[in-house]
Amino acid sequence: MEFSDILKKRHSIRAYLDKPIEAAKLKRILDAANSAPSAGNLQAYEIFVIKDEAKKKAIAATARGQKFIATAPVILVFCAAPERSRHYGKRGETLYALQDATIAAAYAWLAAVDEGLGAVWVGAFDDDSVISAIGAKGLVPCAIMPIGYAAEKPEVSERRVLSELVHEL
Prior knowledge:
Layout: H1 3-9, H2 23-34, E1 45-50, H3 53-61, E2 74-80, H4 89-114, E3 118-119, H5 127-134, E4 140-148, H6 162-165
Antiparallel strand pairs: 1-2, 2-4, 3-4
Helix pairs in contact: 2-4, 3-5
């Protein structure tokens, strides 16, 4: 698929078919996340792949009642690893690690679309509950991303016109 087509096909999918994701597709998605740029190539993030039904329900429970999360065959949880960015001091720990994790998540989402899958970026969750659910002490959860075969086709959302958000100086 052409990159411009991937961007056009990327939508927030919140309903999934009861169909597993093939291991090769999941690996390509994780490889894409791993290829994302990071500050100093430190890759200051961790990715948790959740397939277990009880764990998926636990993750959904952390996300303000967004029960649809548990219906996806796979949930990826992206966490910043501040310790890996200590080299850059406070800014590395509080910003670069977060950026690393979110760029990796964006790459994973686009790769999922390229694989014919749907996903959504979930940012509304309780950090401490996510950490407890996945056993991620010392990490900062940045995104929960359910992934699966779409069981819906959302309408295209309006986007701001470039003249409203781009500022030439």
